[in-house]
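[job 0412] stage=fold_complex status=start
inputs:
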Amino acid sequence: MTDITSLRPLAAVLVSAVAIAPILLSGSRPNVRESWTAVAALAKFGIVVSMVPGVLAGDTYVTDLGSFLPGARFALEADALGVLFALLASFLWIVTSSYSIGYMRGLDEHGQTRYFAAFAASVSAAVGVAFASNLLVIFVFYELLTVATYPLVAHDETDEARSAARKYLAYTFGGGVAVLAGTALVYWLTGTVAFTPGGIEGLASADPMFARLAFALLASGFGVKAALMPLHSWLPDAMVAPTPVSALLHAVAVVKSGVFGIARVVLDVFGPETVGNLGMGLPLAAVAAFTLVVASVIALRQDNLKRRLAFSTVSQLSYIVLGLAVLAPTSLVGGLLHIPAHGFMKITLFFAAGALHVETHTDDISDMAGIGRRMPLTMAAFAVAAAGMAGIPLVAGFVSKYFLLIGSISAGQTLFAVALLVSGVLNIGYFWPVVYTAFFESPEETDEKPLISGPLGGRLSWGRAAVADPAADDHAGADAVADGGGDAYGHEGGHDHAAGWERRKWTGGESTWFMIAPILVTALGSIVLGIVPDGAVFLRIVRLIVAGATGVHV
Amino acid sequence: MSDLPALLVVLPILGALVSLLAGIRLDRSGWYVAAATLSVQVAGAVAFAADGLSGAPGSYAVGDFTIPYGIELLVDGLSATMVVLVAVVALGVLAYARHAGPRSNRFYSTYLLLVTGLTGMSVTGDAFNMYVFLEITGLTAYALVASGEGGRSAVAGLKYLLVGTFGASLYLLGVGYAYIATGTLNMADLSAELAAVGYASPLVRASFAFVVVGLFVKVAMFPLHTWQPEAYAGSPDSVSALIASLVSTVSAYALVRIVLTVFTPEFLEAVPFARPLLAATAAISIVVGSGLAVAQTEIKRMLAYSSVSQFGLVVAALSVTNATALVGLAIHLVGHAVMKGGLFLAAGLVATGVGGRSVSDYDGLGSRMPAAAAAFGVLTLGMVGVPPAIGFFGKWYIVVGTLEAGAWGLAVVILLSTLLTLAYFARLLERMFFREAPAGAETGPADAAVADGGEGHDVGSGSSADSGVSLGMVAAVLAAALLAVGLGAAVPAYESALAPTVEVLLS
Amino acid sequence: MIDVLVDRAYFVVAFLLLGIGAHMVIGDRNLVKKVIGLNVFQSGIFLFLIASAYVTGASAPLLSEPGPYVSPLPHVLILTAIVVGVSLTAVALGLIVRIYGEYGTLRADLVSEVSDGE
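[job 0412] stage=fold_complex status=done
writing structure:
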């Protein structure tokens, strides 16, 4: 383990923050504006990737910006845990950027400049959370993340969106206050707030009452964004946001920053051993187990697809927290691996839901009968990701849940293992009907299909196969989509729904490639993670983290 | 030691005289005189700060009289901070006032006299001298508040005068008690003599109570804040920015000075009612101030109540009297002055630009005046305590300070104050950025946003061209927003520079 | 009890003045009377401080007189404070003139009623 002084962590955080200015300035020229987003996304991913080999070799990249407050320096540190989260967030940002372009243009949304600027700011903050080297720095980025995502939640500017955003602010700032309080307590107890693998030394010997209080404050503070019950209720409401926002932020960046915070607290502030000694692991695990079962049950009863996905998120996040709280090395691996696994799968699901919304304006599952014919690729990807969510082998979810189960059982926590299995069944219970409806039913009633006339699916001139190379905005060529996308839009207006969903080809006739490609990429990612978990870099990073925190090689 | 401390007090007086005299011949000369004076003042203040922050606290004897008998001026980290703050904020607000008015030479003359009073309060080391400067500050502030047009500002000024004088008189009464008990007025001398008299003496205790309550009036702690909302809301925008950012701040500094230098932390230890008086007032102010702020519909009144709440934080930090909390106190005084001044200026900017002074007028401001709305948003978040803005740093030190002192209740109140602050600012953020501008407002982009380009481009140019918003006004507001974010970087250096001062204050 | 009060007659008077002044400032609706009340209040403080400087049997602090002297410092201070008080009164009366011109009344309640309607 060596520390390498490098500007790369800082650059990874700043690159999208710097892009905000050009994005705002080129607001009147959407293509230029989106190419800034693309450039920043690719650069960010590149910087993060460039640190992966070093991190796998046991190095840590550090940018030290000088002292910040007593007991804390303003330093960014790319260690294994940080790189895990940053890699996930920055990769999925690329995909989401492409998807956002298709989605926002497809719906002719207002305020797109603000949207893309806030998006870039959020990703900066998320990577900042990933690379924070101590509790104060993580708090800074955690709060900035709240601020940056607020405009995204309130994007629609309807009363519903505003009240959801208000709730979001209240919840997350409330969580921020708890984090601040916990941080202050930790500082007061130990004189430092720096992340130390295996835990800050002073905490093990500190007054257990105060240490417990600090842990509870930190865990509940981060738990707000991790949507632990009963602090979850902002998440389903925040689904009024545009779907790419829900996808990246509410399935990946925001909620994962909460989970990531808990991981930091468990692994690097208190250390698994101290958490165990304080007896705080069990209550946290109990909350998580409760959340994951109850949220699954609630999800069963949601007819709005995005709300069902939201409760699924609430439930799945608790898998991660449960893995962390059980404290056994294997369950830690499972929990941490579930961060990328859930990220890939959930973003696929949200992308699919968003594509349905853009193309057919269908939001409720009861209206989706036979929609698999209209959007075959999308729904196929949805089915793959849903299978992964339920823990079916060959998809990412299986691997992480396997580790979680083994870990819980080996730690003697059979009850939690049962909770995991029950929730797995419930997962099937709420995802299968969607898949079934989409592929194996046909609409019995055809009177009120919410397909609205008017320009749909974006405008032809912007339809480009830019996913493969989003940066080359101007010469990627529109030819790639012209056959599929172009025709589709042409027919949309005059389509007659009395006969159910129109059948579209599997070759991309269902939507623009801006949206199909991200869906396929993330679905493919879920499968790769499921088939060759060791080949994909995430599991190696996770093993490294757990070895660092517990000394046990899993 | 140079004569700099005295010169800093004298210079604005001279400037005020020159401005007044020049006004006889040249009608529009006041601003230039004031700008020149304050520029020199800023330079002098910086030199003074270099002195005060670079080592152990020192002092300066006015007219070379032997210290306990003559007037002493203090040169330490805290007074240096205040002097620089006063000079810089006064210059910044002046840049704003050039176009926003009031523009008479008498106004600038009074303005400079206010700077004198504030600088004097910051440097003086004599309890009675403090009273004189307190009254100079008060008198000029009353006059400035009343300098607006219409009856409202006159009424606000008179109300401010009645309540403010009441506070200053109580302060004088308290100083009188201390004098009766000890026979001296020099702060350092007083602290030694008071200790010799004994903290159990009713004279000493009464003195503490009167002085503290008198200054509570000036700082506007609940329930003695009644003058503040009307004074801020009724005065011209540049005046309310100046007063909101400086008068309460320097009064709070005076409170700190009196409590720590004259009465010392041992007094707080020895007298059972002293610390709870401070802590309870602070906690009540934080909570009730925020609650009242939520209830306001007029922006400037809301900001005024916000000040009541924020100064609760300052007094809370004072009540625990340890080094961490004191550093937080100093940082929060500076941060609050910058942010609150900036907010008042931004409110004035909005009122000039789109003519709205109430909360509902802020609908869709983000598309009507993007620069003002962005600055307002940044300052708002700074007040809430979102890092890395300066508001966070003050709050952090104060919270850690209260924890170190074991004042759990205060720590909880301070932490919750974040949410209380959010309660009244979040609705503004929402209105500014996520509501359509009301019909008939001079804007197009909010409606034209359907065109994919999105809003934001070439917005605001229309509204700023024809509505009397000047470059200086926008620059002052943006500077405040930038300072609010950027000052955080100076905190570590500032903390170590302040360390010797804090040590002396607490000893 | 009576003895104590008589001994401290000056102080008793001073605090009576304080009370009367405060009552006038708070209780009276007429703006001019409020200002008068403020003056009474301040006078109470001035008298209190002057009285505190008195030393039994001492002479005025003139070097030609034999000692002991009464303390001269409070006199100087109160002179300053009186000057401050006079200027305060001047500013207050100036404002009242303006308010009268604006609203045509000197009653605080009426003024606030009118200005609320603005």
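[job 0412] summary: The radius of gyration of chain C is 19 Å.
[job 0412] exit 0
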